[in-house]
């Protein structure tokens, strides 16, 4: 019961925001329509149960006129039932897609808000495979929540509607055992209740492990799919290293977990299916066994027995709701747990950015410099990395940063960008300043070349002439005439071409502060020299900070900053560069 209350509380927390959102009226009206139709269907089932008594009595009495009228009456009920069932499905699916669209938009917004997605990875990405959680899990959550919720409501209303009928039939057809009549008020109701409770308890005892197994199955499936995508994204390197056999073995290990867990699901499903199938088959004859002695004792007619069986079946089916949907219920609870974990991961990443002992990035009015004050960078496990003390990147100056691998150069860039929370101190950035970070391997969205080079601006932010001229300038004349071509540019372009395209992006956006993290390292020295000359020419007012290891870069920077080890961390040591051109 504690787990049930916890699950229901989680479901409410995940579901309620949609029905209080900007789409709340449409969602509420669709939900109300689905529920109203379900109640109408229960009403039709009540009428059909009453029809059973009249129809089978007409058969027993060989009453032709009554038989014909009952056939017509049933045809009308069946037509109404079909129309209601069709529109219930249609409105249910309409509600599902609206609800799913809203939840997906909210999760995407929260996940991508102020680098939450990045901080979630820094924390170990406890909410693994966010792609699956925002696709499969959201879809299953909406579908299962509606189906289980509406089904549960239908069961409650069915019980309330048919218990009265079944209670009256219990009085009309008292229990007969071994030729004796026993007057037990509502014995058919108690029989349905006992039968259903036993079935529910036994089903839970057999099937409860499915919740954990289903959770693992979704996790293993997502992990296997994620690693397939990684192989596809890194196919060139794998081919160059002839790593196909190693990748095949690694992928088969992950798929082996999928298979092993699936076999566990098969075994558990076999057990629960064997029980539920037996339970459902027994429920077909159970009401006849109870009421048949009264029929053969001529206490009721055939129509009364058939009505009793129908009413009993409805009550028993409603009471056995959890038996019939247990498999879905286990899957639903696993989905709820995964979405709850995803929300918890987002919340933890958000809290990480609000901690008092984080690196504070503030906007300031001053001389236009980016100033570091008492800045201490740490690794996620708390290990000290960089102590910047008091340092400034002066406006309009070009600075070259050097240091051994792992000394924290890129991490310092991340702290200035405001996405590295581990540490202390502050980074003061001029108010309204535009910053751009160019890594060694730039990111380009799949789409048109124009959209790739304009990113993160919307496609069309720059004219075709601007883009063509810029691509010519950075040494990509073969791409200058192809702005509308679609492609996966991180895969189709060499790393050197990607770095040229990254410089083109910087030239188009013309940021006030440009941080180059080995952004030209894959180019030959003459090409690198040409691009730095181009940056000087096109962006004369831009403050440029570069990370690089080539001594030839000295000629393009006015100041050198070296990260040198001081005990258990690295510190910044600045010097003016006499080699600047």
Q: What's the arrangement of secondary structure elements?
A:
Blueprint: H1 2-19, H2 24-61, H3 64-112, H4 116-122, H5 130-172, E1 175-177, E2 180-182, H6 187-207, H7 210-233, H8 235-240, H9 244-296, H10 302-319, H11 321-324, H12 326-352, E3 360-364, E4 370-378, E5 384-393, E6 398-402, H13 409-417, E7 423-430, E8 435-438, E9 447-448, H14 449-454, H15 464-473, H16 477-480, E10 486-487, H17 489-492, H18 495-509, E11 513-517, H19 525-538, E12 543-547, E13 559-566, E14 569-576
Parallel strand pairs: 3-7, 5-14, 6-12, 6-13, 8-11, 11-12
Antiparallel strand pairs: 1-2, 4-5, 4-7, 9-10, 13-14
Estimated helix fraction:
55-70%
Global Rg: 35 Å
- Biggest sheet: strands side by side, in what order? 3-7-4-5-14-13-6-12-11-8
* Fourth-level CATH superfamily of the largest domain: ABC transporter type 1, transmembrane domain
**What does the largest sheet look like?**
10 strands, mixed
Low-pLDDT windows of residues:
none
Protein structure class: alpha/beta
What is the CATH architecture annotation of the largest domain? Up-down Bundle
Average residue-wise pLDDT: 85
CA-CA gap between termini: 75 Å
Number of helices: 19
The CATH topology assignment of the largest domain is ABC transporter transmembrane region fold
Please report the total strand number as a whole number: 14
Outline, from the CA principal axes?
Answer: elongated
CATH secondary-structure class of the largest domain: Mainly Alpha
Q: What fraction strand?
A: 5-15%
